[in-house]
Amino acid sequence: MEERTEERPAAAEGRPSRLTALQEQLIWALLGSGLSRDVLVQAVGELERERGPSAGGEKGDGGESSEEGEMDFPPPIYRELEKLSPEESAKLRAEVDQLLQGDPWHVAKMVKSYMQQHNLPQREVVESTGLNQSHLSQHLNKGTPMKNQKRAALYTWYVKKQCEISQQFTNAKHGLASAEEPGEDVRKGRRNRFKWGPASLQILFHAYERQKNPSKEEREGLVEECNRAECLQRGVSPSQLAGLGSNLVTEVRVYNWFANRRKEEAFRHKLALDTPYSNQSATSSHANLPPSPEHGVKYSQQLLCDTVSSARGGGGERVGRLVGSPVQLEPSHTLLETHNAKQVSSGGPLPPVSTLTSLHSLTAAPTSSQSLIMASLPGVMSLGESSLLIGLASTQPQSVGGGFTTLQPISFQQQLHASSQQQISQQLQGHMGASPFMATMAPLPCHMYNKLDSPQYHSSSLLSQAMVIADSSGLGTLTSLATVRQILTTDPEEQTDSPLQDDSLHLQPHTPVPASSGSLELYPASQTTDSHPSHLLSPSPTDLGSYIPTQMVSTAQ
Amino acid sequence: MAGKIQSLTDEERAHLLPLLRNAQWVEVVGRDAIYKEFIFKDFNQAFGFMSRVALQAEKMDHHPEWFNVYNKVQITLSTHDCGGLSQRDITLATFVDQASLM
Which UniProt keywords apply (chain B) (predicted)? Predict the structure, then answer.
C-alpha cells in the first residue's frame, strides 16, 4: 500500500526520481488534491517570481516538463478529476493504481470489452486522454505496449467512465439528468455519434425480414425492443435508458435505418439488373465447367479460407478480400465465372458499404459482418462458399463457415427459368422470409441457364441455388449435394423448390452426375420442411438424406 | 463560513457509525468524537498521508485533531461548531481512510 506511493512516481515517469521520498509524497499529495500538473507548474513559476529566484531550485514536476513540454499534458481527463469530490478523486486514483499494477494486456482486454459493451467510440477516449488513436487501438486490440503514464490516463478515463455510466443509469432511475458528462464535453460540445449495437441490429434485421416498411407504431415497438436489448447487453435494467447516452435508440434512428436498408436493396437490385447483360458472352465458358470439379472444390476452399480469414480480419479487410477472390475464381469455374464476371464487372465499384450491412438481415446472426462480405459479392458466393450460410441459418450460430449466414441464394439467379426464379423468390421469401437479396438475384440466372440445354446444367444451377452450407465440412457435402441436385432436377421447374431447400452452394458447376442419388447429403434439405433458418445449420447428412425425398416430392410440380 | 452545522441525527448515527466502526474508528469516551490511529511504513509515508489529508481538510474547511510521531498518526474527528459529530466528520473520515491506502 504505502510502498506504492514511492514506486509510483518513478514507475510512471519511467525515470529515476530526483526527489526525496518526502518530496515525492508531497508532490503526490498535491496532485491528488486536484492540482493538475499544468496548474502546479504554473503556480511554481508564479511563486518563484513572487519570492525571487532564491526561493529554490526546480520544484514541482521533477523534470518531466522538459520532455513533454506543455502539450496537453496532463490530458484533459485529469482536469475532470478536479471537478470530482476529493473522496471520489482519491478512490479513482486508487483504482487506477490498481489497474496499473495489473497485467496491461488483461486490463486492455477489460477496457476494450467495456467499450464494446457500451458502444463507446475510441474517439472519445482519444479526446479526453490525449492518447494517440492508433496507439490506443493497437494497445487495446493487439497488446502493443503503452507507457505507464499513458496507461494511467487511459485507466483514469476508464474508471471515470464507469462512474459516469453507472451514474447515468442510476440517475435515469430517479429521473434526474446526469450532472456528469456522459461522454461529451462542454469543451468539445459534441455528442458522440450514435452507433447501432449488435443486439439492436439483430432485432432490426429480423424486423426487416418481416416487413421493410414499418409503421410508426411498429418503429416505436422496435425502439423499445432495441433499447431493452442494449440495456441488457450492458447488464443494466432495461428501464434505465439514460445510461445508453448517445447510443440511445430513437424512433428517428429506426426510421433512418429502415430507409437506408431499403435504399441499399434498391441499389443491389439495380446492380443485379446490370449483370445479366454482360453474362451472355460468357456462356460458352460453361463448357469449361466439367473438367474441373476438383478445381472448383479447391477453389471454394480457397475462397472459403480467404473469406473465413478475412471475415475474422474485420469488416474493411473482408470486403477487400472478397473483392480479390472473385478474380481468382473466375478462371476455374465456368458457371461461377460467368456469374462472377458479371458480378464483378458490373459490380464494378462495390456498392456502398452499407450494402454489406444489409446482408446482415439475412443472417440475423449476432455478428453478421462476415456474412456481409459474402453477400456483397454474389458471384463469389455462388462460387462455392461452402461455408456460406443462408440467411435461414440466421438463428443459429454457424460453425466455421461461421458468420456467413446470410448468403442469400445468390446462385438463385442461376436458376433456369425466369418463372421459376420468380417462384423461387417468392418461395424463398416465404421460406426464408428474408433475402431481398434473392429477389434481386432472381433475374440474373435466367440468362445463363437458358442457354444450357443439357439437364446437367440445370442441375448445376440447382446446385448453385443451394446457398448455404452450414459448416466447413460442407465442402464434402456440397459435392454430394451437387450430385444430388443433378439427380433431383430432371426438370428445371423443379428447381423452384429446390433452391429454397438447397442451401448448399454447388461447388462444381459441371455435371458429373454420378447417379449417386443415394449419396445425397443435402444440407439445406431441411429447408423444405420448415422455413426456419436454423435447419440449415444442422450439418447432419442423415437428416439431409431424409430430406431428399421431400425435396423430390416438392420439386415435382 | 457556512450556517450552523448540524450534528448527526440518531438515525444517521445508527446508520453510519457501524460502518466506521468496521473501519476501525473508535468512539471517544467522554465526548462526541471518533478516533483512529494509523501506522505507516516510515515518516515519509505518514507525512505524505498527512499532506493529503491536510489539503483535503482545507478544501472542506474542516480540520482534524491529530498527532504525529514518526510513522504514527492519530486522528480525532469532531465538529466544534455543533459540539459533536457532523456529516463533515464522516466525510473526512472516509477520505482519510482512502488516503491512508494510497
Answer: Acetylation, Activator, Cytoplasm, Lyase, Nucleus, Tetrahydrobiopterin biosynthesis, Transcription, Transcription regulation
Question: What pLDDT score does A395 carry?
Answer: 45
Task: Check if the beta carbon of residue A283 is closer than 8 Å to that of residue A444.
Answer: no
Q: Tell me the C-alpha distance between A305 and A263, whole Å.
A: 31
Q: Check CB contact of B55 with chain A, cutoff 8 Å.
A: yes
Nearest alpha-carbon partner for A497 in A426, A393, A402: A426
| Nearest of A149, A159, A158 to residue A72 by alpha carbon | A149
Sign of the dihedral defined by the CA atoms of residues A25, A30, A33, A36, in that order: negative
Chain A CB within 8 Å of residue B40 CB: yes
Q: What are the tens digits of pLDDT across the range A123-160?
A: 999 988 889 999 999 999 988 889 988 999 999 999 88
Q: A30: nearest CA in chain B?
A: B52
Residue recorded with cell 418463372: A419
Q: Is the dihedral of CA A172, A175, A179, A185 positive or negative?
A: positive
Output the pLDDT for position A23: 85
Of B44, B55, B101, the CB nearest to A33: B55
d(CA A351, CA A358): 11
Contact of B86 with B60, CB cutoff 8 Å: no
- Contact status of B29 with chain A (Cβ, < 8 Å): no
Cβ contact, residue pair B102, A94, below 8 Å: yes
> Across the interface, do B59 and A29 touch by the CB < 8 Å criterion?
no
d(CA A288, CA A413): 20
Separation of CA A114 from chain center? 17
Residues contacting residue A323 through CB under 8 Å, at least 6 positions apart: A344, A350, A377
For A310-364, what is each residue's pLDDT tens digit? 444 444 444 444 444 444 444 444 444 444 444 444 444 555 555 555 554 444 4
Considering CB atoms only, which of A3, A90, A91 is closest to B41?
Answer: A3
Helix (H, G, I), strand (E, B) or coil at A18: coil
B41 at the A interface (CB within 8 A)?
yes
Across residues B15-42, what is the average pLDDT?
94
Residues of chain A with pLDDT under 70: 1-17, 52-76, 78-85, 169-190, 277-557
Distance of CA A279 to the CA centre of its chain: 32
DSSP H helical ranges for A14-132: 21-32, 37-51, 65-68, 76-83, 86-101, 104-117, 122-129
Nearest to A62 by CA among A98, A99, A25, A90: A25
Q: Does B7 touch chain A (CB under 8 A)?
A: no
Side chain identity at A462, as an amino acid letter? L
For CA atoms A325, A328, A333, A339, give the dihedral sign.
positive
The percent of residues above 90 in pLDDT, for chain B, comes to 91
pLDDT in tens, A49-89: 887 655 444 444 444 444 444 455 556 676 666 666 677 77
Q: Which three cell numbers stand for residue A48?
A: 518563484
Residue A514 has a pLDDT of: 45
Query: Is residue B24 scored above 60 in pLDDT?
Result: yes
The ipTM (two decimal places) reads 0.75
